[in-house]
Amino acid sequence: MRIFVARLAGTPVFDPSGDQIGRVRDVVVSLRPTADGTLPPRVHGLVVEVQPRRRVFLPITRVRGIETGAVIFSGRLNMRRFEQRVTETLTIGQLLDQTVTLDGRPWIVYDLAMEQGRSEWTLTKVAVYQKGKRRETRVVDWGDVRGFDAMQRDQGAAGLIAAFETERAADLANALHELPFKRRVEVAAELGDERLADVLEELPFTDQIGILTALAPTRAAVVLSEMGPDDAADLLQDLPDDQAAQLLSLMEPGEAAPVRRLLDYDEDTAGGMMTSEPVVLPPSATVAEALAHIRQRDLSPAVAAQVYVTRAPTETPTGAYLGVAHFQRLLRERPSMLLGAALDHTIDPIRPGFTLPEVTSYLATYNLVAAPVVDEGGRLVGAVTVDDVLDHLLPEDWRERHAT
Question: What is the CA radius of gyration of the chain?
Fold first, then answer.
């Protein structure tokens, strides 16, 4: 049986009872350099991600079947966090995108195949391509290529990115967190601006800062513009003042303005936590229009839970705040009803200066997932969601703990 490892990324893993316990994230091998470099690497096992975002090791000897869309294992899975040894190599994370030599010419690795022998699994095939107008591809024996044992300055990242193309940003972020810094930066450099922004929002602050400072300032500014203003503001607050000021100056004025406003508030207040881009509509909009807005895929569930109704303008800071319409109420009303008739007048907005304990108490008291933030002039300036509150209640290194 021949299995191409890049295609394994994201494959569900099932225990002997048929319950899914996680997904494959990588294949662990040991390179076995020899004088002629022909000895195929031995496969040790799979890196499996289980909830909550913990990576554990599944020995290849426990794998009983690898089928389309499923990996089945026997025995019990050790839930201790996987830690890569110095003698081990991650096939997807570290071997893909390497430049190797084949027939005296340079080729780029985009996949590798493993096969089961009489006593062990090994990497037996290498899939490579050459850049050019007509991309030439080949699948050759492991022993036909040279160069896997060489350190490479610019390895590239197309293969690793392709392996996680259909995965959530949080999954790719977890994979990046496990990689050496050099490789992490290589992958970040080749991600699209929007995808990189989504991934950065899921990384620990130390990883965020490391990647952002490794990018050219102009690229870093574009990526910040693609992030939510609240996430961008949180990240800028952790940078040196001069670097943060430089990045803000390189952002488009319209993108930088909401970030600057958020930076004016203390970090642990409603103003410092809120998103400045909630769903806002005028009272003359219909229920059907409101439902169309909250159906947008890029909205988090907490942001999409309610629509804020204000006078024009409807971009924060808005005109006079009128009230909030909850999505459950919207689902019960006629599509043609005007939003002004569907408001919940029992919920008072909070002020930007509310402290973290005050915001937490407010959401808990009224069983809300989000709350409007209104300034002294009666204008909506943003909304605080339960996600924002959790980010500030949890320890600063909670993402790293979650991944361990």
Answer: 25
Closest C-alpha among 28, 148, 122, 43 to residue 83: 28
How do 306-310 and 280-281 pair as beta strands?
A: parallel
Beta strands in 51-95 (DSSP E): 54-59, 63-67, 70-73, 89-90
Q: Could you tell me how far CA 181 lies from the centroid of its own chain?
A: 17
- Asked whether 146 and 37 are in contact (CB, 8 A), the reply is yes
Angle formed by the axes of helices 193-202 and 169-178, to 10°? 70
- As a whole number of angstroms, the distance between CA 297 and CA 90 comes to 33
- Residue keyed to tokens 């979650």: 402
Q: Which amino acid is at 31?
A: L
Residue type present at position 143: G
Q: Contact 294/326 with Cβ under 8 angstroms?
A: no
Q: 192-195 long-range contacts, Cβ below 8 Å, gap at least 24?
A: 193/219, 193/222, 193/223, 193/226, 194/226, 195/169
Tell me if 25 sits within 8 A of 47, measured CB to CB: yes
- CB-CB contact of 359 with 384 (8 Å): yes
> pLDDT of the chain along its 404 residues, tens only?
899 999 899 999 999 999 999 999 999 999 887 666 678 999 999 999 998 778 999 999 999 999 878 999 999 888 898 988 888 999 999 999 999 999 989 999 999 999 999 889 999 999 999 876 677 899 999 999 998 876 666 677 888 888 888 788 988 998 888 888 888 998 999 899 999 999 999 898 899 999 999 999 999 999 999 998 988 998 998 899 999 999 999 999 999 999 999 999 998 899 999 999 999 999 999 999 999 999 998 888 999 999 999 999 999 999 999 999 999 999 999 999 999 999 998 889 999 999 999 999 999 999 999 999 999 999 999 999 998 898 888 766 555 555 44
Q: How far apart are CA 365 and CA 181, in angstroms?
A: 44
Domains in the chain with CATH codes: 1-183 (2.30.30.240), 192-264 (1.25.60.10), 280-392 (3.10.580.10)
Segment 295-301 long-range contacts (CB within 8 Å, at least 24 positions apart): 300/385, 300/387, 301/369
CA angle in degrees (0–180, nearest 5) for 21-181-155:
95
Cα(267)–Cα(261) distance, integer angstroms: 12
